[in-house]
Amino acid sequence: MTITQPETTAAPHQRFEPAADALRGRVIAITGAGDGIGRALALTAAAHGAELVLIGRTVSKLEQVHGRIAAFGQAEASIAPLDLERAVARDYDALAEALQQRFGRLDGLVHSAGILGTLAPIEHYDVPTWCRVLHVNLTAAFALTQVLLPALRASQDASIIFTSSGVGRVPRAYWGAYAVSKFGIEALSGILADELGGAGVVRVNALNPGPVRTRMRAQAYPAEDAGSLARPEDIMRPYLWLLSAASRGVTGQSLDCQAH
Ligand code: NDP
């Protein structure tokens, strides 16, 4: 009789067991750090030793996350208010300048901020909503990455994570601007990874969280039983893998947080 082990479909980044100090000494900036996945990542990264730059638009939420991190008593966090819908060049420059002065480098940049817009057929999609979604989800991520590249290049081992989506890889009816923005994110990630080169110090990857119990998911699926979904803190392993030395040399990948 042959006894076979049950097959696991989880990839290495999904099975990653980070050491408690996996991110010690790393300076990591996260957009959308006040809520949902970005918030969970800020708390998890801080618990693993990272110094956080919390970027977001609602200062009270960022302050709440800052307070939780301070209570850990092991790593510093800074708050960088930035409304990605309204920010102009001088706002991005001010953030880059402040970061450069305080840390002199950046070891991780995670784009988690995003908006859903509306679910509607292309034929009826509201044009101003389309522009807002493309701007917040795609153009702002491009602008922030561009302005922070010098700080990322000053790191010994830097990682950029763009947050993608299943609808950023396979087109789906009614997902309109959101899906187009995520297809754009996949392209931006791949282009930048190619430009920065396989052996460079800055690696660039796109990560799809899969279904996660957040405000955005509830907006997209209001009738769903949210209790069956992963919580943000359940999908942190791939983020920690990509942000830690464990993924050194991995670039230009499109990865999934959850096994199918
Ligand atoms: P949430 O709605 O919980 O969080 C979104 C975050 O983005 C919030 O912190 C929000 O800030 C911030 N944000 C929105 N607009 C702006 C803006 N103009 N300027 C700055 N920050 C802004 O969503 P999730 O945590 O679910 O989403 C995180 C990422 O994961 C997104 O990119 C999303 O597309 C992606 N994703 C999520 C999935 C899911 O199932 N949840 C599935 C696939 C992808 P504030 O709190 O102040 O509004």
Report what the structure shows.
- By secondary structure, this protein is of the alpha/beta class.
- It has a single domain (27-256), classed as Rossmann fold (3-Layer(aba) Sandwich), CATH 3.40.50.
- The chain is 41% helix and 14% strand.
- The protein is built from eight helices and seven strands; from the N terminus they run H-E-H-E-H-E-H-E-H-E-H-E-H-H-E.
- The chain has helices spanning 12-15, 36-47, 59-72, 89-103, 127-153, 176-196, 215-220, 236-243, and strands spanning 27-31, 51-56, 77-81, 108-111, 158-163, 202-208, 254-256.
- The chain has a seven-stranded parallel β-sheet, sandwiched between helices.
- Helix 4 runs parallel beside helix 5.
- It is globular.
- It starts with 11 loop residues before the first helix and ends with a strand.
- The model has no long low-confidence stretch (mean pLDDT 95).
- The protein binds NADPH dihydro-nicotinamide-adenine-dinucleotide phosphate.
- NADPH dihydro-nicotinamide-adenine-dinucleotide phosphate binds next to helix 2 and helix 7.
Concise synopsis of the structure shown:
The protein is 41% helix and 14% strand. The chain has 260 residues and is α/β, with parallel strands linked by helices.
Q: Topology of this structure?
A:
Layout: H1 12-15, E1 27-31, H2 36-47, E2 51-56, H3 59-72, E3 77-81, H4 89-103, E4 108-111, H5 127-153, E5 158-163, H6 176-196, E6 202-208, H7 215-220, H8 236-243, E7 254-256
Parallel strand pairs: 1-2, 1-4, 2-3, 4-5, 5-6, 6-7
This protein binds NADPH dihydro-nicotinamide-adenine-dinucleotide phosphate.
